[in-house]
Write a structure and sequence with these properties.
The protein is mainly α. It folds into 3 domains: about 290 residues, Alkaline Phosphatase, subunit A, CATH 3.40.720; about 80 residues; about 425 residues, no CATH class. Helices cover about 55% and strands about 5% of the residues. It is built from 34 helices and 13 strands. One of its GO terms (cellular component) is endoplasmic reticulum membrane. Keywords: Endoplasmic reticulum, Glycoprotein, GPI-anchor biosynthesis, Membrane, Transferase, Transmembrane, Transmembrane helix. InterPro entries: Alkaline_phosphatase_core_sf (IPR017850), Phosphodiest/P_Trfase (IPR002591), PIG-O_N (IPR037675), PIGO/GPI13 (IPR039524).
Length: about 1100
């Protein structure tokens, strides 16, 4: 695509003051001497000023020649009126900028408060009960008596079967990893097939010693929540009352707590999540915990577990422990890094197969071996959601002695798929507790696994009935305690399983051999299933008033933001007339010299509105105790936050209405305004549909294409032929770039089979294809040249721009390209003879250098760099000169017409480099296209005089949302690219690792928010008035887009809270929109507003203030 032709610079007229002469015939008169002295002084000042850029203003005639414009002030301070006026304007700008930042910080708090209250009522909660099961107090009398009943030595509630247990967790062990697969031309095998045959073959050949079953996890399928369910036997929720979502210690009754109370010595090897959940439980001398978050490391954790588990299983050291937990992470990390269909996955599964074979050989008859996956993984190797591949894990139990059985002959062969005979993961809790002679944890909702208690012949119905009866009694006790704690009348609960309990008890009410244990077993299982269903519905009770409060606060924030934007909107583009500028400045100077500073009033309405927020918060704080006494809220902090948010919103809205004399028509008055409204509102309404949410990226592409077509047709109406050609060129380029970016896709499960993923090498891979490694090198070669073409179009490729764009920026891009090449070489083992950590040790400093260049060197350069201009003086007139000084020389300022925009773009380039550093090759291509689209958008807005229209900020918002999907993301937890946390790091470092993940996930939105001031600053000359107001307005419209989307997703998630697709589609979309809103708020403050301050001070220091 050829560079657009530059627009011709405008020539400037020069106004020279006339030097007064002495009166004829009286050259010695006082008046004549005064006039000559005054003229000489003015000429001297003028010549001195022409040696710097500030003097060029006098060349324009801005200052006058009457001695008032830039002459002395009569106070002996050496500063003229112009200098003093500039100082006042600079101070006014700094002061008002402070009020603006204060307002936006308040708005961020409002958004955070609204999202907090909605989330608090929306995310499911359950009350954690403090009760614990006791060995001596079973929930019901024992069915049969045995010696030592009620003691850990013989078995608390059931005779103990095993003395010891080894529990091996193979993270992300999906069920189909363990079953045999027959290769065919129609369904070719993948890398994970037939790599772990030991589990299936043992269960098939030795049914009395082993069984293999699908092990179904409850979403969310994250390791933290899964371990909670696997040890407590209760259902996971997003928030547990009395517990923290961030992985603090589990305080409710659990398996490990019962083991510890029974005197069992616990050992842990592997994933350090266990030590966070169960601090102080494990034998410190022989336990080993390893960092679990480094998904790029496939071997450290697994090798550490293997190194320590085999010695502990030896006869010499069996007496040091009773229960061992070994958590392998290699399979999970191979999935995250490469995807399941990769040779690395084959290698890890084969390693696990060998390890399990060795472990089985080392066991004795009194040790139970449990092997399981905590969750599965999707086609790319990620997890966190509720798709079948993510919830279908595997469970395998083994014993050297024959204890396991099947109630049907058909069950002797392990299920071929995860849809056959699955068991819930919570069922492991009562199973392990009874086999080890421990009490079942109080909160358990699972049931005993049939194969573990059916006996070798599969007909020990008395044993099955006994364990089902004991487990059901514990569930009944927990349910009654939960109802009491919650203040719920059991009789009001729909579908109470009380009748099922009575039926089961009646079935076993006979005497002696007349008891029908088989029917009783079936009835107790039915009781457990019904209770589980009721608990799911009970914990799915949303706090609707809290949700309404959050929505109301968000709606109030949107209203305040819209009124703020409309109150600061420009009436239209400023008139570019040097004569008018000179007259206005002269009038301003005259008024200032006379002490009349009325013209220096507030540029925006920020001070008034922010004072309203402070006053409202103050009044709310005064009334808060009285309101609290009347309502007696349980949580004082939440109550205070709610009152503060609402009262400050009322204060802002009151101040805005008080400021306005009347309310005009709120509807748009131009086609562009209507387009901005239609894009925002239609997208927000569309989120009520699951299909719309699934195909959001395609809808966004349609909106962007619509804008491009509209701008192309609008360009046809431009009078100037060159402008008309440029407008059509940039419009077509904007559309074409959008379509080019659309080829980068990461399909979500619901889009199949109508979508084909191209972001990675294949749909079952998490690595880039070899040809994709060329993309960063192409970006390094082309992107700086593209940015340069937009600079040269406004004659702004001057000052720091050539060095920073052509050298520093390109060098950073080359570093990124080399990094991903080394990463691919490491993944593909291109150099097998090199040490395994060498490439990692090389590429991490490369990434660190890239970030240092963008953040440290880039920030310093932007902070201290002058405007991107160049000044030259020639003695003789030449065509195209801009300014003629008093001596007839020509002063040319290249970049003058874009002094603000060209300098601020340097900051956006720094942000762009940071985002590119954390994107994979395909994502880097998409972000580069986005940067190009932003530049074309700037030209379109300039040509069509739309700098003050809300369409620009809205289109930027659409670009950010669109390219979120083009960088390999979806509104699902599984699409989070966790490996980005380690691009410039060897291990986890807080807070940097989470920041890197956020930069990878929301880099497109961050780049768009950073570019908002460019919509106003691009092609703006120095001393342009109202820039702060215009930027604040543009930022308001931009944030309003995200705020409306976030408000809509909260409303739809609340309204559709009983929808079947709530946790698969609507809830992830709400969470993503909420995070994006907070991120954009922060970037708007930390980058856009701070960058505007530095940019304005730099330009104002050189050219003066408008």
């Amino acid at each position: 695509m050829a560079d657009p032709p530059p627009r011709a610079p405008e020539s400037k007229k020069v106004y020279e003051p006339v030097i007064p002469k002495a009166a004829p015939g009286n050259y010695n008169s006082i008046a004549a001497q005064y006039a000559r002295a005054k003229a000489a002084k003015e000429k001297e000042e003028r010549e001195r000023e022409e040696r710097n850029v500030g003097g060029i203003l006098t060349g324009f005639g801005l200052g006058g020649g009457d001695g008032k414009g830039r002459g002395g002030n009569g106070k002996g301070d050496g500063k003229g009126t112009f200098e003093r006026l500039n100082e006042v304007k600079e101070l006014r700008f700094k002061g008002e900028w402070g009020w603006v930042v204060g307002f936006w910080v308040w708005l961020l708090c409002i958004h955070a408060a609204g999202l907090y209250f909605f989330t608090k009522g929306f995310l499911l909660t359950r009350l954690v009960l403090e009760e614990k099961s006791s060995c001596t107090e079973p929930p019901i009398s024992l069915s049969t008596q045995y010696q030592g009943a009620g003691t850990p030595e013989a078995g608390c509630w059931h005779p103990k079967t095993f003395e010891k247990a080894v529990v091996i967790i193979i993270d992300a062990l999906r069920y189909d990893f363990t079953v045999p697969f027959k290769n065919s031309t129609d369904t070719p095998s993948q890398a994970f097939h037939n790599a772990l045959p030991f589990l299936y073959e043992t269960a098939e050949k030795q049914p009395g010693n082993a069984f293999l079953l699908p092990f179904i996890a409850d979403p969310p399928t994250t390791t933290l929540q899964r371990l909670k369910g696997l040890t407590t036997g209760t259902l996971p929720t997003f928030i547990d009352a009395g517990s923290n979502f961030a992985g603090t210690a589990i305080e409710e009754d659990n398996l490990l707590m019962q083991m510890k109370d029974a005197g069992r010595r616990l050992v842990h090897l592997g994933d350090d999540t266990w030590t966070a959940l169960f601090p102080g439980y494990f034998e410190e001398e022989i336990s080993r915990a390893y960092d679990s978050f480094n998904v790029w490391d496939l071997h450290t954790v697994d090798n550490g577990v293997v190194e320590h588990i085999m010695p502990l299983l030896s006869p010499a050291r069996r007496g040091e422990w009773d229960v061992m937990f070994a958590h392998f992470l290699g399979v999970d990390h191979a999935g995250h890094r490469y995807g399941p269909n990769h040779p690395a996955m084959t290698a890890k599964l084969e390693q696990m197969d060998a390890v399990l074979t060795e472990v089985v050989d080392a066991l004795d008859d009194q040790t139970l071996l449990v092997v399981m996956g905590d969750h599965g993984m999707d086609g790319k190797g990620d997890h966190g959601g509720e798709s079948d591949d993510e919830v279908q894990a595997a469970l395998w139990m083994y014993s050297k002695k024959d204890v396991f059985g099947r109630t049907k002959l058909d069950y002797r062969i392990p299920p071929a798929t995860a849809k056959e005979r699955p068991v819930n993961q919570i069922d492991l809790v009562p199973t392990l507790a009874l086999l080890l002679g421990l009490p079942i944890p109080f909160n358990n909702l699972g049931r005993p696994i049939e194969e573990a208690f059916a006996g070798v012949k599969g007909n020990t119905w008395e044993n099955l009935g006994a364990v089902a009866r004991m487990t059901a009694a514990g569930i009944k006790r927990y349910q009654a305690a939960y109802y009491v704690a919650r203040g719920v009348d059991e009789s009001t609960v729909d579908g109470s399983p009380k009748a099922l309990w009575e039926t089961a008890v009646t079935t076993l009410a006979g005497t002696g051999k007349q008891q029908n244990w088989q029917d009783g077993y079936a009835t107790f299982l039915a009781f457990q299933e019904e209770t589980l269903r009721i608990c799911r519905s009970l914990w799915a009770r949303f706090d609707v008033p809290c949700m309404i409060l959050g929505i109301s606060i968000l709606a109030g924030g949107v209203l305040a933001l819209m009124m703020y934007a409309s109150g600061n909107s420009d009436d239209g583009d400023a008139i570019d007339d040097p004569e008018l500028d000179r007259a206005e400045l002269q009038l301003e100077l005259d008024n200032f010299a006379k002490g009349n500073a009325s013209a220096l009033e507030d540029e925006t309405t920020t001070r008034t509105l922010f004072r309203g927020a402070l006053m409202g918060s103050f009044l709310g704080a005064l009334l808060c105790p009285t309101i609290w006494v009347m309502n007696r809220s349980e949580n004082v902090l939440d109550f205070g936050l709610a009152v503060g948010a609402i009262s400050s919103l009322v204060g802002v809205l009151y101040q805005d209405m008080r400021r306005r004399m009347s309310f005009g028509n709120p509807l748009p008055t131009t086609i562009w305004g209507w387009l901005a409204v239609i894009f925002t509102v239609s997208q927000s309404i569309g989120f009520a549909s699951n299909s719309y949410t699934i195909w959001e990226d395609s809808i966004l592409l349609f909106f962007l294409g619509t804008f491009g077509v509209a701008s192309a047709f609008s360009s046809l109406r431009l009078e100037n032929a060159a402008d008309r050609a440029l407008g059509i060129y940039h419009s077509v380029a904007f559309i074409a770039l959008g379509w080019l970016a659309s080829f980068s896709k990461l399909c979500r499960e619901e889009q199949m089979p109508y979508c084909r993923s191209t972001y990675y090498a294949s749909a079952t891979s998490s690595t880039s294809a070899p040809w994709q490694l060329l993309i960063p090198f192409v970006v390094a070669a082309v992107l700086p040249a593209i940015i340069k073409s937009f600079y040269t179009g406004s004659r702004s490729y001057e000052g720091l721009a050539p060095a920073w764009i052509s050298w520093a920026f390109r060098f950073g891009l080359v570093l990124s390209a080399v990094f991903w090449t080394l990463d691919a070489a490491d993944d593909g083992e291109w150099f097998p003879n090199l040490p395994s950590t060498l490439l990692k040790n090389i590429r991490v400093p490369i990434a660190q250098t890239g970030f240092a260049l963008a953040l440290v060197a880039g920030s310093i350069a932007f902070g201290y760099a002058p405007p991107c201009i160049s000044i030259s003086t020639t003695a003789a007139p030449t065509p195209g000169s801009q300014i003629t000084n008093s001596s007839g020389a020509l002063v040319t300022i290249l970049g003058y017409a874009n002094a603000h925009g060209s300098r601020y773009l340097l900051l956006v380039i720094n942000i762009l480099l940071c985002v590119l550093m954390v994107q994979k090759p395909m994502g880097a291509g998409a972000i580069s296209i986005m940067a190009w689209q932003i530049l074309t958008l700037l030209e379109i807005l300039d040509l069509l005089s739309l700098a003050s229209s809300p369409i620009g900020p809205i289109i930027l918002g659409l670009l950010g949302s669109f390219h979120f999907f083009k960088t390999g993301h979806q509104a699902t937890l599984a699409s989070i690219q966790w490996e980005s946390a380690f691009i410039p790091l060897h291990t986890i470092r807080y807070p940097w690792s989470p920041i890197l993940v956020a930069l990878n996930s929301f880099g497109a939105q961050m780049l768009a928010a950073s570019a908002v001031p460019l919509l106003v600053l691009w092609k703006q000359k120095p001393r342009r008035k109202g820039l702060l107001r215009s930027v604040v307005t543009a930022l308001s419209w931009h944030v309003a887009y995200y705020a409306v989307v976030s408000l809509a997703t909260t409303m739809w998630a609340g309204h559709l809270r009983r929808h079947l697709m709530l946790y698969r589609i609507f809830s992830p979309k709400f969470m993503m929109a909420a995070l994006v809103l907070v991120v954009v708020d922060f970037i708007g403050i930390a980058v856009a507003l701070v960058g505007l301050r530095f940019n304005s001070l730099s330009v104002g220091e050189v050219f003066g203030w408008g």
